[in-house]
Amino acid sequence: MRFKRLNVMYFIFSLMGGLLVLFTLLPILRSFLAQTPSILIEEVTDKGVQEAIFNSVFLSAISATVAAIFGIPLAYILARKNFFGKSLVESIIDLPLAIPHTVAGILLLFIFGRYGMVGALFERFFSLRFVGTKLGIIVAMLFVSLPFMVNSAREGFESVDVRLEQVASTLGAAPFEVFKRVSFPLAIRGLLTGWILTWARAISEFGAVIILAYHPMTAPIKVYDVFTQFDLKHSSAVAVLFLAICLVGFVIFRFLAYGGMGKRRQ
Q1: How many whole angstroms separate alpha carbon 231 and alpha carbon 225?
Q2: How many domains does the chain fold into?
Q3: Are 77 and 175 in contact (CB under 8 A)?
Q4: pLDDT of the residue at 232
Q5: Judging by beta carbons within 10 Å of its beta carbon (0-12, 13-18, 19+), is residue 1 exposed, middle or buried?
Q6: Which of 7, 48, 140, 205 stands the most exposed, by the fewest C-beta atoms within 10 Å?
Q7: Considering the chain, what percentage of its residues have pLDDT values greater than 90?
Q8: Is residue 38 part of a domain?
Q9: 189 lies in which domain range?
């Protein structure tokens, strides 16, 4: 009797999950089926489209890597230490998730614009600008995607038994050695998942990027630009190309992240 109840539950859950997958898949599948080969080839061979897609893929990977370099240490502290203001720090990290992305772009202009406190210093001392440059794109992508890295990494570290770290410390390992040899390897799945999610969020960013750096174009901005200049058929062709690249990227990154670790736990 209990087995039958479990079967019913799994059937209902599978049905609900299938509807959600179908909801996600239908618009994507419809966009692929609606393509005109001649228009698709035209957009594939367009150097502007190629450059925009490359910018999205490459700059989002840089953003995710920067997020990992600075976010992993913070995530470890949040996972292991209790301190005054911890909830405030966690809330600040999560805040970009709630800020409309055009608003995020405006906020970043105050700091990284030509007359912003950081932007002015970089332009004066390093001759580097954020507005209208790839550096600005990275900043915009990093701002909106950083919470994914920190939160995933924190959950990864929280899944590591703290007693293992204590044993390593008892055996004479320094704090960084404990982190490098115990905590980091055991939390690696969460860290890699965080990097992939951060990359995915960064590569899709539109609002903050278009305000801070309309040029050089990224793929989402190129789709918008083609839509306003031409029509839905041309813009959907660029969108389909971008979706295909994202899908390939997901497959590759997940294979690299989990392929060498054996099968996931059941």
Answers
A1: 10
A2: 2
A3: no
A4: 86
A5: exposed
A6: 7
A7: 78
A8: no
A9: 43-261
Distance (Å) of CA 68 to CA 62, 192, 229:
10, 9, 38
What would the pLDDT profile of 102-140 be if each residue is shown by its tens digit? 999 999 999 999 999 999 999 999 999 999 999 999 999
Q: How many residues does the chain have?
A: 266
Provide the token pair at 30. 């419809």
End-to-end C-alpha distance for the chain, whole angstroms: 25
Whole-angstrom distance, CA of residue 217 vs CA of residue 11: 46
Nearest alpha carbon to residue 32 among 236, 171, 195, 254: 236
Same-domain status, 226 and 184: yes
Assess if residue 266 is contained within a domain. Answer: no
Biggest alpha carbon distance in the chain? Answer: 75
- Pair (27, 91) in one structural domain: no
- Decide: 90 and 169 in contact? Cβ < 8 Å: no
Residues 25 and 90 grouped into a single domain: no
pLDDT band at 166 (very low <50, low <70, confident <90, very high): very high
